């Protein structure tokens, strides 16, 4: 399994049931009722920077619960600042996300942690590959970083966004923009080996109604973490919050022992 690289697969439909995503509301309620959401019983941070990156067609807004929770447990959380994630990823990184990484890195004096949902996780992996000196870890939440295998509705929406990008940025983006065949820095960085100095966590759910979960894992049990729930609900899932708190704390302890 080519776990650490973006593999060029023929784009195809995932055999998933999108109706399951209607359960996301229950996950949000469960989060609000969980003691984890209020910072109880989870390891605390010490001001480290964590940047949240939204998924396809999403904005920073729906990551508000996770943003607030990270601050509750002692981290310095940042929204990505990329706006609507319906743009050429290479442009989003170069014009917006890199600035957020630089700002967080400068403010804390330490490498930053990136948490990306769905497409946001793929973008996070690209940033880490391009800036390993400023990124400590990447956590992907339902991110198909091994290939574009998604529900047919998602693929159709992706085609519509690609057409808009080519139309609005004619002459300023490559012909293969928004496909795995593009030769831009975003895609090229994903095809390289993932930086060994950047820690990874790949969270996935086998009841994902948007993407094929098998393309969201590395194959390394020390990296991959299965949870129950929906694709959209990964950003509200209390088990995911527990995993994130534990992984971030583990990195803190590792760095403290290395210092």
Give the SSE map.
Layout: E1 12-13, H1 24-33, E2 49-53, H2 64-72, E3 76-79, H3 89-108, E4 112-117, H4 119-130, E5 135-141, E6 149-150, H5 152-168, H6 185-191, E7 199-204, E8 224-226, H7 238-258
Parallel strand pairs: 1-6, 2-3, 2-4, 4-5, 5-7, 7-8
Word description of this protein:
The radius of gyration is 17 Å and the shape is globular. α4 packs across α6. The chain contains 7 helices and 8 strands; from the N terminus they run βαβαβαβαββααββα. 47% of the residues are buried. It starts with 11 loop residues before the first strand and ends with a helix. The longest helix is centred in the last third of the chain and has 21 residues. It is 37% helix and 14% strand. It is an alpha/beta fold. The strands form 2 sheets. A 6-stranded parallel sheet has the order 3-2-4-5-7-8, with helices on both faces. The chain has a two-stranded parallel ribbon with strand order 1-6. It has a single domain, classed as Rossmann fold (3-Layer(aba) Sandwich). The mean pLDDT is 92.
Provide key terms for this protein.
single chain; 259 residues; alpha/beta; Rossmann fold; six-stranded parallel β-sheet; two-stranded parallel ribbon; 8 strands
Short description, anyone?
This protein has one domain (12-251): Alpha/Beta hydrolase fold, catalytic domain (Rossmann fold, 3-Layer(aba) Sandwich). Helix content is 37%, strand content 14%.
As laid out across the biggest beta sheet, the strand order is: 3-2-4-5-7-8
Which geometry do the CA atoms define? globular
According to CATH, what is the topology?
Answer: Rossmann fold
The total strand number stands at 8
Number of helices: 7
**Rg computed from alpha carbons, rounded to a whole number of angstroms:** 17 Å
CATH C-level name: Alpha Beta
Provide the domain count. Answer: 1
Q: Give the rounded overall mean pLDDT.
A: 92
Structural class call reads alpha/beta
Distance N to C terminus: 34 Å
> What's the architecture, going by CATH?
3-Layer(aba) Sandwich
Query: Helical residue percent?
Result: 25-40%
Q: Report the order of strands and helices.
A: EHEHEHEHEEHHEEH
Q: Tell me the name of the CATH homologous superfamily.
A: Alpha/Beta hydrolase fold, catalytic domain
Uncertain runs are none
Q: What characterizes the major β-sheet?
A: 6 strands, parallel
């Amino acid at each position: 399994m080519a776990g650490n690289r973006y593999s060029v697969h023929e784009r195809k439909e995932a055999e998933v049931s999108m109706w399951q995503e209607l359960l996301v509301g229950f996950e949000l309620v469960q989060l609000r009722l969980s003691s984890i959401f209020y910072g109880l019983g989870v390891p605390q941070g010490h001001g480290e920077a964590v940047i949240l990156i939204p998924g396809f067609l999403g904005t920073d807004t729906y990551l508000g619960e996770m943003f607030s929770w990270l601050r509750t447990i002692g981290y310095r959380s940042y929204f990505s600042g990329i706006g609507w994630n319906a743009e050429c990823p290479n442009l989003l990184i170069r014009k917006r996300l890199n600035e957020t990484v630089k700002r967080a890195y400068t403010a804390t004096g330490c490498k930053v942690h990136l948490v990306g949902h769905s497409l946001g996780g793929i973008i996070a992996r690209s940033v880490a590959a391009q800036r390993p000196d400023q990124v400590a870890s990447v956590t992907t939440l339902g991110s198909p970083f091994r290939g574009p295998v998604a529900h047919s509705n998602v693929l159709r929406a992706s085609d519509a966004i690609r057409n808009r990008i080519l139309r609005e940025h004619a002459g300023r983006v490559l012909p293969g923009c928004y496909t795995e065949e593009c030769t831009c820095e975003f895609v090229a960085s994903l095809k390289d080996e993932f930086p060994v100095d950047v820690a990874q966590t790949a969270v996935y759910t086998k009841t994902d109604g948007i993407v094929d979960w098998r393309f969201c894992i590395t194959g390394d049990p020390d990296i991959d973490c299965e949870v129950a729930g929906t694709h959209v609900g990964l950003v509200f899932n209390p088990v995911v919050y527990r995993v994130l708190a534990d992984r971030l704390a583990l990195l803190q302890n590792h760095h403290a022992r290395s210092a």
